[in-house]
Amino acid sequence: MRIIGIDIGGANTKLASSDGEIIELHYIPLWKDTTLPVSLEDIAQELEPDMVSVAMTGELADCFEDKVQGIDFIMRSVKNAFKSKVMYIDNSGNLCEEPENLRDLAAANWAASTRLIGSELGDCIFVDVGSTTSDIIPIKDGKHMAGLTDFSRLVRSELFYAGALRTNIAYLLDKVKVTKGESNIASELFSTTADVYLLLGDIEEDLYTCETADGSGKSKGDAMRRLARVVCADLTEISAEEIYSIALQAKERQIELLTASIKTVAQRNGLERIVSAGIGEFLIKEAAERLGFECISVSGRWGADVSKVFPAYAAAKILEDEITTCTKRDYPS
Q1: What does DSSP say about strands 51-56 and 3-8: parallel, antiparallel, or unpaired?
Q2: Looking at the domain assignment, is residue 45 inside a domain?
Q3: Are 167 and 222 in contact, with CB atoms under 8 Å apart?
Q4: CA-to-CA dists, residue 71 to 4, 77, 103, 294, 305, angstroms
Q5: Contact of 199 with 218, CB cutoff 8 Å
Q6: Number of H helices, E strands in the chain
Q7: CATH code at 251?
Q8: Residue-wise pLDDT tens digits, 204-218
Q9: For position 326, what pLDDT does the model report?
Q10: In this structure, are residues 73 and 54 in contact, taking their beta carbons and an 8 Å threshold?
Q11: Domain count, the chain
Q12: Same domain, 311 and 259
């Protein structure tokens, strides 16, 4: 039986098979004239899954009037694409065909991850730094202790709205040190964290899956040009060393903010162990070291490719495990 997990976000749709043999990441920005319905149809025809487990966060995209409208669009897109049985992960980490309250499906991909992590690794703080956001989820006795909505998690520091690719540098920094002194930052979308981590060697160009701020290339030279614009300069006005310094300052600030959020969650829940996932695992590792916490890497346990799409993999595994459990109960050996 081929079981596929799909994590439908506002920018990226990720999928994984329960055996980890199939791993895919598709850049499908929902706020544009989205190709999600057609893309899902293509995925269904190519993979022909027997069952599908879906988690979502894309309902927050501002093309939707509210979250219920977004959830309804995503569910209809999935239903029209797949002929096989589809299950959904709700914000408690449970599987359902269709919840009584559609809002229970909103922003639930982290709940899939924490259910699998809780059953496999026990008490910890699960930290997943993706392209856009960072989830910081306390897990105790196999269950997550987090707020059930993005709003409540933002209030509780369980959601830090910065990621390794799509975050505007102007969100992280308001000033930077340059040769001439301290410069204010231009409050424009001139550069994102993908430029920072590409330039610093933390990601390779193939991981730069989102659009660039200026719509141009994804080379290190392109990244340097965009980072120069953050201080309203071009490559004739600022040195390469200063641009690298701006990148380092942005990285340092993101680590500081991530560390502070993890510390808040750790103190509230009495936890000092982290499980890290996502394309930004390198940021989590540094934060754990600063806090003196043990850090278990999803990449080390399940592989780097699985780590990048972990909610999708977790959704598939949860469905597979439930099928196995039901089979053993109904047909004991």
Answers
A1: parallel
A2: yes
A3: no
A4: 19, 10, 8, 37, 27
A5: no
A6: 12, 14
A7: 3.30.420.190
A8: 999 999 999 999 999
A9: 76
A10: no
A11: 2
A12: no
**What digits encode the pLDDT tens for the residues 285-296?**
999 999 999 999
Residue 25 has which token pair?
Answer: 């990441």
Return mean pLDDT, the chain: 95
Beta carbons of 106 and 54 less than 8 angstroms apart: no
Nearest 5°: the CA angle 218, 223, 226 is 120
Residue 116 in any domain: the answer is: no
> pLDDT digit string (tens) for 301-332?
999 999 999 999 999 999 999 998 776 666 55
Do 8 and 86 reside in the same domain of the chain? yes
Type of residue found at 105: L
Task: Give the integer Cα–Cα distance in Å for 96 and 111.
Answer: 13
Question: Residue 34's pLDDT is what?
Answer: 84
Q: Quick one: 139 and 83 in the same domain?
A: no
114, part of any domain: no
Amino acid, res. 85: K
The residue segments making up the domain with residue 257 are 122-298
Same domain for 294 and 156: yes
Q: What's the pLDDT at 330?
A: 61
Give a yes or no: residue 112 inside a domain.
no
pLDDT at 332: 56
Nearest-angstrom CA–CA distance, 208 and 165:
7
Output the pLDDT for position 333.
55
- C-alpha dihedral sign at 153, 155, 158, 159: positive
Q: Which two tokens stand for residue 258?
A: 């991530």
Same domain for 64 and 164, yes or no, is: no
* 183 and 45 together in one domain: no
Give the C-alpha separation, 9 to 228, whole Å: 30
> What DSSP line would sit under 12-70, residue for residue?
EEEEEETTS--EEEEE--TTSS--HHHHHHHHHHHH--SEEEEEE-GGG-TTSSSHHHH
Whether the per-residue pLDDT at 238 is higher than 60: the answer is yes
**Four-residue CA torsion sign, 231, 170, 266, 132:** negative
Domain co-membership, 285 together with 227: yes
**267 & 224 share domain:** yes
Dump pLDDT digits (tens) for 165-189. 999 999 999 999 999 999 999 999 9
